[in-house]
Amino acid sequence: MEGSGLPSGYGLYLLQTILALAAVCLLAFVGLRFLASRSRGLGGRGKAIRVIERVALDQRRSLVLVEVAGRTLLLGVSDGGVSLVAELDPGALSSGDKASDEVRTTTADRSPRPG
Asked: Rounded CA gap, 2 and 9, in Å?
């Protein structure tokens, strides 16, 4: 076997390890590309929902202004979930009018929260 020219001993193990690592990296790359393409089709960059602006209040809470089906919604996002803060008139955002005149708070936001 010495004259066959095939690697043996540690050289063979090293070659097998490198080939196995390359195969795992290739499978991970292909799998992630496949999952990314599927997630885009399920709602990655949709046309029905548009995020207009996001403002972080602190590390765990933020306000998000979204447009859904012609409605402009101000959402509060925290560890506890997402809640509707207000529905805004879409014209008020572009015209620069006083936004407080255009805010219609929902009845759900007026109810006391447990806890």
From this structure: 12
The pair of structure tokens assigned to 20 is: 């196995």
Q: What angle do CA 46, 51, 56 make, to 5 degrees?
A: 140
Beta strands, E only, the chain: 49-56, 62-68, 71-78, 81-88
For the beta sheet containing 49-56, the strands, ordered from the edge strand earlier in sequence to the opposite edge, are 49-56, 62-68, 71-78, 81-88
- Put simply, whether the predicted model's pTM sits higher than 0.90 gets the answer no
pLDDT tens digits along 34-80? 887 776 654 455 678 888 889 999 989 999 998 888 888 999 999 98
